[in-house]
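Standup notes
- DV: blocked on the single-chain target, sequence here:
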Amino acid sequence: MNIFLTITLVITLISLCFDREKTQNALRRAIKQMVQIMPAFLWMLIFMSLVLTVFSEEQIQKALVRDNIYLSLALAVSCGSLAIIPGFIAFPLCGILLEKGVAYMVISGFTTTLMMVGIVTFPVEKEYLGVRLGIVRNLISLLIAMITALATGFFFGELF
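- DV (later): unblocked, structure below
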């Protein structure tokens, strides 16, 4: 992370050397956008903190390992759509779930919705994309996630 901050700082300083006025205007606009998006982002963080406080790893595992794979898939897709977990945490978590007996189809649905569907991030999307486009994007992402999960289940022999 520090390397990215350093690179950003160096590039900003180079930009200041070439055109001070444009760089200052760009920084002002960036700060203004950050201030506008901050309330929605903070609500999103508060909500996710509460969700992660209420549900433990054992509860998630118990919910995802069921006799009815479709119910497990529905729960996984719901959790994935609500959660905000970065990939470097989500993929090892899925490895742990796989070791605990969670089906590949369920893991596929969880990770795909986790990365593509954003119910909690919708207020932020609404600011940039608008309500209609945000809803359409999330619905298409959900459809793609379901198709991906069902295809995974088919190829791993979990459906029939």
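- Follow-up: Residues 1-38 form one domain.
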